[in-house]
Amino acid sequence: MTQKKQILILCTGNSCRSIMAEALINAKLSDCAEAQSSGVKASGTVNPNAQKLLTDNGLWRDEYHSKLIETVLDTPFDLVVTVCDNAKETCPMFPKAVKTIHVGFEDPSGKEYAEYEKTLKLIEQQLLPVIKKELC
Questions:
Q1: Are the C-beta atoms of 103 and 128 separated by less than 8 Å?
Q2: What is the distance, to the nearest Å, from the Cα of residue 80 to the centroid of all Cα atoms in its chain?
Q3: What is the domain class of 5-130 according to CATH?
Q4: Structural domain boundaries of the chain?
Q5: Rg (CA), the chain
């Protein structure tokens, strides 16, 4: 059995978009990839609407939480994906040379629940095919 490719989803706060992307990858591309997420300036909390949406869609796992980039810098990732423009600009250098791509999404934080649903759908439609093409 081939080893799963390791992906890091990087955002600014690691409370919403990056966790939604992490959950989608782990649910839909589990045969070839495994994702973690972190934030350049992690908020330390998961957005309640993001958590509810992931729970409602059967994607939530208790291990999902907001974490600082420093906690994953030594992990050998196959791909780093930035999902917000700020994280793209402040993406740190990783010890091991790693491919970095950017697929940006608007932050639904503070908006209606429907915006979270829209963002989850966009992540699934726009990000998952790119990751599949890159790694699977």
A1: no
A2: 9
A3: alpha beta
A4: 5-130
A5: 14
Q: How far is CA 68 from CA 40, 117, 126, in A?
A: 6, 25, 25
Q: Determine phi and psi for 100, rounding to 5 degrees.
A: -120, 130
Q: Is 114 exposed, middle or buried (0-12, 13-18, 19+ CB in 10 A)?
A: exposed
| Rounded mean pLDDT for each run of 10 residues along the chain, 136 residues in total | 86 91 96 92 91 97 91 88 74 69 91 96 96 90
Contact 75, 7 (CB under 8 A): no
pTM of the model: 0.91
Amino acid at 65: H
Catalytic residues: 11, 84, 91
Q: State how far the Cα of 59 lies from the Cα of 127, in Å rounded to an integer.
A: 16
Asked whether the beta carbons of 66 and 40 are under 8 A apart, the reply is no
d(CA 74, CA 95) in angstroms, rounded, equals 7
